[in-house]
Specification:
Radius of gyration: 17 Å
Distance between the termini: 18 Å
Structural class: alpha/beta
Order of helices and strands: HEHEHEHEHEHEHEHEH
Number of strands: 8
Strand content: 15-25%
Bound molecules: pyridoxal-5'-phosphate
Shape: globular
Length: about 230
């Protein structure tokens, strides 16, 4: 069951900001996605490759699938034919692999670079130094990466009740976004800042997010025993 009240509230807030909602449907059944799809939602986010592939096969072809989990290089091939945006890219190796499979599928794949902004150790993503190295490497190799499009940054704030900590992490990500947005190549064209989840999307929007990834507020809590 989806929470249509929460969904409507979020969509209305986003309209004023010209921002996009990615409805995070991981672990949730196809029937829930269909219900939201019939309300007009087209952007859905998933964390696990096999689950994404299974769902993509069962749902209408105009759904825009966002991969928001940690993508292993050996699994790129499964989502390359259809994925709309890959949010969690944090290495040159992965960029090259995405480019290779995009080429095989004769398409250009949109990506975001994931930045590590939270205090938690377990989260994936680049720190500032790694980001700067990746950019350097990218500028040298960009002519060999014609089948990817780097559209911006993604990040997850700390799971903290302290709103100041969360806000500062988003501010930091926005500043980094602005720094790299001044660079412009055909395949480096910053316009998406993906930040904000169920617990912190209001703060994220105030700090300049234009794409939020919301799951539990819309689809209900995920069972803690399950991954994700
Ligand atoms: C699960 C997940 C979300 C959604 O989380 P909610 O708190 O349920 O809104 C957003 N982004 C990423 C990267 C996730 O893994």
């Amino acid at each position: 069951m989806i929470d249509t009240d929460n969904y409507t509230t979020i969509v209305n807030k986003l309209m004023q900001k010209n921002a996009t909602l990615v409805a995070v449907s991981k672990i949730k059944p196809v029937a829930d996605i269909e219900q939201l799809y019939h309300l007009g939602q087209l952007d859905f986010g998933e964390n696990y490759v096999q689950e994404l592939v299974d769902k993509q096969e069962q749902l209408p072809k105009d759904v825009r699938w966002h991969f928001i989990g940690h993508l292993q290089t050996n699994k790129v091939k499964y989502i390359a034919p259809f994925v709309h945006l890959i949010h969690g890219v944090d290495s040159m190796k992965l960029l090259k692999e995405i480019n290779k499979h995009a080429q095989k599928n004769n398409r250009i794949i949109n990506t975001l670079l994931q930045i590590h902004i939270a205090k938690e150790e377990t989260k994936h993503g680049l720190d500032e130094v790694e980001m700067s190295k990746l950019f350097e490497e990218f500028t040298k190799e960009r002519h060999n990466l014609k089948n990817i499009n780097i559209l911006g940054l993604m990040g997850m704030a700390s799971f903290s009740d302290d709103k100041t900590i969360v806000r500062n992490e988003f501010k930091h990500l926005k500043a980094l976004f602005d720094t790299y947005a001044v660079h412009e190549f055909p395949n480096w064209h910053f316009r998406i800042l993906s930040m904000g989840m169920s617990g912190d999307y209001d703060i994220a929007l105030e700090e300049g997010s234009n794409m939020i990834r919301v799951g539990s507020l819309i689809f209900g809590k995920r069972k803690p025993a399950q991954k994700g």
